[in-house]
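Please, structure for the following, as tokens.
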Amino acid sequence: MDAQTIIRDLLTTQSLAVLATQDHGQPYTHLVTVAADPDRHHVLFPTLRATRKYSNLVADPRVALLWDTRAVAMPQGPQEMALTALGTAAEVTGADREPLLQFYLTCHPHLADFVQRPDCALVRVSVHRYQLVTRFQDVVEVDLGQVNP
């Protein structure tokens, strides 16, 4: 199975990811419920604006997202995998917000009350690169290049 297929399967089957941000050089991690677009160039998640997560993203939009398969078996391929997405994050505003919010809600309808709160931001990560690790040591990088938000 090729890396592109494994990445697509991971992003489709794993709705929780660990988001890594930083605050003045101090790393922080946050659990987020994500939805990746079909071309895998963008990943969405909601967060309240009054959180450390949001303030860290505003101060430094460079982020990493981590998915892994410890708890859920993948339909095909190696069982122990980790996928890291490296990219930049920004709140979705303007005309883009409503269609992306609807896409997010098709993936996670149970979060409708949360994401529609006035103090909730919808964040889009523009992914530049994926790093897929299988069997604890086999690393494949998939470079998406510069992606516009």
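The chain has one domain: 3-143. DSSP finds four helices and eight strands in the chain.
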